[in-house]
Specification:
The chain is of the alpha/beta class. Helices cover 57% and strands 10% of the residues. Bound molecules: pentane-1,5-diamine.
Length: 608
Amino acid sequence: MNRRGSGLGLFALLVYLFLYAPILVLAALSFNESRSSALWEGFTFAWYLKLLQNAQVMQALRTSLIVAFVSTVFSTVLGTAAALAFHRHRFRRGAAIEALFALPIVVPEIVIASSMVLLFAALSLRLGLLTVVLAHVAFSISYVVVVVRARLAGFDRTLEEAAMDLGAGPWRTLWTVTLPLCAPAILAGALLAFALSIDDYVITSFVAGVGSTTLPLQIYSMVRSGVSPEINAVSTLLLLATSLLLLAAHLLERGKPARLCAAPAGLGLALLAGPFLIGGPAAAAGEKVLNLYIWSNYIAPETLAKFEARHGVKVNVDLYDSNEALLAKLQAGNANYDVVCPSNYAVAILARQELLHPLDLTALPNLAHVDPAFLDRPHDPGNRLSIPYFWGTTGIAYRKSRTGPIDSWAALWEPRFKGRILMLDDARETLGIALLLSRDGHGVNETDERALRQAKELLLVQKPLVRTYNSADFDQVLLAGDVWLAQGWSGQFARAMDEDPDIEYVVPKEGSSFFLDSLAIPRGAPNPALGHAFLDFVMEPEIAAEICMTMRYSTPNRAARALLPAAIRDHPAIFPPPDVMNRVELLEDVGDATVLYDRLWTEVKSAR
Ligand code: N2P
């Protein structure tokens, strides 16, 4: 090879490396014995085995396969029919009409996604499996049309004419001549549609309701509740399967013999279907389901399993990390949840918008165990709509050995900690802290526009120092050593302190906010009776104590607190002493200023 050729070769190699290095790292780490991505401790298949035992992943895989299969069948039939129509007939403005078919390929996914949600809401279709399938059919038809049409472009029409001359009618010609000749392209289109459906995240995340969590959605929610090598394993499998399917589609399109294409296609499908067949049983048809939408790190699977066993039902869980995400979901309508977990101020907003189902207190005898200090609060007088679940404080957790003692929010603005600071991704919490730090003594519930704008400026000043905004696994980021100081919520930090004695938690001297998170039943919940049963279940003293033990957020349940071991009952981060409680203020509903908070926070995050 001459020098120019080898130079080009090297360049191409570097480009490929740039493209594929992340994927190779992920695949390699899926075989790493260590949990941490920082060190290699040896080769193992353990994460793949663990995957097979993970009921949620298996369920998501099943959902993905069902959606992919059904949507592929429909989009292939419809797409092929459309391609044939364009091939056979000359339409007026045919080119323009054909271009319309290709449009969904270039329209931004996010636009398709939000328009679909609007359409489904207008049609009063509940978000779920059906809406996911409809959406997938809609976006994959275009691909099928394009692939089949390309094949038909080089199609020898004389073959069809010959069949007709020999006496075959149009249908017979279609069946015996046209379709068999196009079969490779149709199959390629189908494989492409299948792979796209298995892969899709953006559109699915908008149109999925409860019980329709696909594999990509599941992976994303696993990432949010703590990264584990299981995710690397499932991602590697997904990647391998879709690559094989696409390879088969490509070979078919190139006119390679069917035998050659069957191997990658079969292997790809087997990779997906294998775990499907070995995995545990799905929720039996007709089995009752409780759909729960709750903060991440707020309830343990063991606790849910107890509820499932006791009531002979299945619990579907979806997670979120901000009240705003919950509000958006419920305000969009038709979300299908039986139980949700808004903070006090979000209860007030939902109550105002009449989005909550009135509670039947006679079905909640365990409410008697809740400390009266947490009942009948201004956000929900008489607890007609919600029951207290957890409370906690917002503070700073820090790595002592790196930072020395910390007692002020100002530490999060110190240049020496540049790149080692984590802030919550939460409008009320971040602006709230900036308000506390401002000189004029604003509180965390400020509604004055000027004060809020000043707070935003303060967050902009801080931004270059911030490593990341994260409300989901901020405790894990601190534990991993990626940051030294993190703003976050008490419960997860109390757990982090247990895991690593170098971590300390403080509610800074300037004061802070605290939250009171409740369980409520959304209006239009499919199963409000089961929702009530769940609310009562979590207020049982033993269960409430277990939830507090596993999650370390603070229980408002008096009887449960008495059951806790002293180490938890007297833990200063979980049940803070009076001097700390005297300097925290409950986040309240700020009425019309809510929109302003959201806007200013978006401005902070999008600023460069
Ligand atoms: C749990 C978050 C605590 C909720 N991940 C704060 N309102």
